[in-house]
Design brief:
Structural class: alpha+beta
Order of helices and strands: EEEEHH
Strand order of the largest sheet: 1-2-3-4
Shape: globular
Helix content: 25-40%
Distance between the termini: 32 Å
Largest sheet: 4 strands, antiparallel
Strand content: 25-35%
Number of helices: 2
Length: about 90
Amino acid sequence: MPHGGLKEFAASSNGDKWLLEHDRITGEHIVIHRANTASGGAETRWSVRSFLEVAGDHPQGQALREALLDIRLEGESTSDENPKADFPEKE
């Protein structure tokens, strides 16, 4: 993913989209949820950790994990010092 770019990692059949953004200034990755037009098209921004805490068991959570692995394979590190921080353990 280009620095500062957006990468769509999930989309639902109703038109919702989930994107991963890399902030060039902070070096952090942010999850963006764009609701479908019928729902008002609101955009919500989450930290990766917060998103996985809420949606980690949903298809979007798995898709985010795969997108983060792809980024790492491309040689781009995440902002967390601990790479496992993106993948909270289930209790």
